[in-house]
Automatic annotation (TrEMBL):
Reported function: The coatomer is a cytosolic protein complex that binds to dilysine motifs and reversibly associates with Golgi non-clathrin-coated vesicles, which further mediate biosynthetic protein transport from the ER, via the Golgi up to the trans Golgi network. Coatomer complex is required for budding from Golgi membranes, and is essential for the retrograde Golgi-to-ER transport of dilysine-tagged proteins.
Similarity comment text for this entry: Belongs to the COPG family.
Gene3D superfamilies noted in UniProt: Coatomer, gamma subunit, appendage domain, Leucine-rich Repeat Variant, TATA-Binding Protein
InterPro entries for the chain: ARM-like (IPR011989), ARM-type_fold (IPR016024), Clathrin/coatomer_adapt-like_N (IPR002553), Clathrin_app_Ig-like_sf (IPR013041), Coatomer/calthrin_app_sub_C (IPR009028), Coatomer_g_Cpla (IPR032154), Coatomer_gsu (IPR017106), Coatomer_gsu_app_Ig-like_dom (IPR013040)
PANTHER family, A to Z: COATOMER SUBUNIT GAMMA, COATOMER SUBUNIT GAMMA-2
Coatomer subunit gamma C-terminal domain span: 634-747
Localization terms from the record: Cytoplasm; Golgi apparatus membrane; Cytoplasmic vesicle, COPI-coated vesicle membrane
GO cellular component: COPI vesicle coat; endoplasmic reticulum; endoplasmic reticulum-Golgi intermediate compartment; Golgi membrane
Any one GO molecular function term: structural molecule activity
Domain Clathrin/coatomer adaptor adaptin-like N-terminal: 6-421
Keywords, sorted A to Z: Cytoplasm, Cytoplasmic vesicle, ER-Golgi transport, Golgi apparatus, Membrane, Protein transport, Repeat, Transport
Protein name: Coatomer subunit gamma
Subunit: Oligomeric complex.
Amino acid sequence: MRRLVYIKSNAIKALSKISDASMMQSVARYYKRAVVDRSGVSLVSAYHMFKANRDVIKRLVNEVQKAVGNSNASVQYHAIGLMYLIRQHDKLALNKFVNYFGKNAIRSPHGYVMVIRIAKQVMEEERDAEIKMGMFKMIEGWLRHGNDMVSIEAAKAICEWSEATPKELFGAVAVLQVCLSSGRSALRLAAIRILNKLAGKHPLTVATCNVDIEALISDSNRSIATFAITTLLKTGNESSVERLMKQINSFFNEISIEFKSIIVEAIKSLCLKFPKTHSMMLPFLFNTLRDDRGLTHKTCVVNAFVEIIYSIKEASDVGLGYLAEFIEDCSHSSLIVRILYLIGDVGPKMKEPSKYIRYVFNRIMLEKAVVRVAAVDCLIKFANECKELKPSVISMLKSCLKDEDSEVREKTLIYLKSMEKGLKVEELFSFDSFYSLNELENNLIEYLDKNNNCEIDFSRIPMIPLREMRKKKKNVEIEEIVKEEIKPEFNVMNIPNVASLGECLKTCKSIQLTESETEYNVVLTKYLFKEHLVLRFEIVNTLNDQILNNVHVESKCDLEDEIVLINSTRIDELKFNESKDIYLTFLLKNKFPSASFTNLLKFNVKEIDPDTNEPEEEGYNDEYSLEEFELNISDFVLPIESKNFDIEFNNLKCELIETLVLSSIKSISVGISELISIFGLSPNNNSQSILDQNSNSHTLLLSGSLLNNERVLIKIRMVYHSSVGLTIELNVHSNDDDICEAIVNSI
């Protein structure tokens, strides 16, 4: 009998490997029978086939539901995983699924872990406070489970809950505190990792465990010791810094680069929290910078120095001195260039700016061309801001006129000419007007066609104010993007009463509000006007035995005071395979509202008589839930790349800086694509590409225009750590404070 089970299991596995979409209908019955067997192989095979054959696997839902109650722990575990895949987009079904296990036994710790993770997802996504607390109480009950794996997972779920308060964290922290003194290193590591992550958000709550955490600093497992020391740095006070720094020194050279970076980040955070401690922190950071040879770690330390120098005035001179000394022996051009920029930006404002000149000039004499260019840029900043240093800087710059690299020579020449005229470099290239490009082009073409030896008379070419040129260019770019985004087959003028709304500024990408195989297909398209939003619901009836009458959509917004429904349409009759549109028009009282919409499709159903093929006289009212959708800042944005990002970024007068932690994002590359999607802006300077795949930090540059033609540029500094997630610093620039605030609030 056992042999037959193995043969059947292997056959199911083989079928899952060789079956394609065209074969799934014929082999589905074998899966249906095998799902309720005592072997879980069909569940595992179905799990792996779900992406490719989602619709077929979904039909097994009744059999999978039976397998969830199976007495075999392995079968139940795999059934839970498959049931989650099938029901993952149905919030109500997920809620019922988790509540089922609150009353019925789970037969393995792995099953408990799976259910806890599903419950945490429901708790994060659900808006109903009562359902949230129900999930929390259930997870809290599992804190007292006899299996360590289950209790740790429950504690992790509570600690990672974004809405958890100190009161709700108390039980989870108490369980983790007990685990810190466990004899099993895996349990200690799991507990201290969770507490380390929690300390960034709730340091006072974690501080109650400091005595137990301090005991782990001397742990033989260096990973545990590292997490312990960084947790104490996050929760400690100013008086404990010196003692902690001595303990870090004792084992810092023995740990991996990843853990070194974690410690550096914790030291930076503590230094910013207690500025007076910089006298102890900076020497330590400098020693790690000098001793370690890895670019990844050095970049992390330099980032810490830069942030401390900009944030703590008292530390600027000392920190800049350390970095200036570091570039004397540094072999990484990218770091030298960055430090030279910092010296040029901060150095002239120090009490003794002359002491940095030697370090900068040495780079001109000894380094590569890219570094020499950066050094020239740095020197000119000293010359412009420190008049007493100007003669010596000019003599240094003159030596660069014979440099073998053309960029070094040309930059030096431009800078020297600007100083001769008493102008700053920005003023040298500052114009109020420019030649008419059309006329200039015509003159150049004529010159080439006639093979003239005479020079072009530029006095005859009309000049146009730059303000008018920029405005005209911006309007052309916006028009081109809008034309691309509006589908050619649909005419916006078909929207009822559209003429009174003005010009359609943007058509957003269509969103599927139902799955493709359901009874009714609904596709949403958003149209943005100056003060209005129009929702177009394209509805298809896929049932050949029904006719729908009086079809309409009820769309409720969570910002009803700011987004007001002023007009709606209905479909009188919708036959089989027929597509018709419903329009909802909203008045936008704010510039860039962010809101969620819940949607319900309502209609009257009349069955088709199979004998006469005519609809019945009487019908019945029915409704169908549609997927929620959101109105975000990205809907009001047109992704337009900046021609010169740095100059435009600095010229925009309004600024908003915000630091956020995105714990759910698992890598920098994922973070880049997510942020571009959230903001709807265009990446600049190829910043969407990661040059160093081993780096744990990156800077993303985004730009675009709002529908009111206002520009917005964002500089996003991001750092990823496996224990924390992705930490980002948003630096938003615009000419409108409301835009900056709307961008930050969109995350």
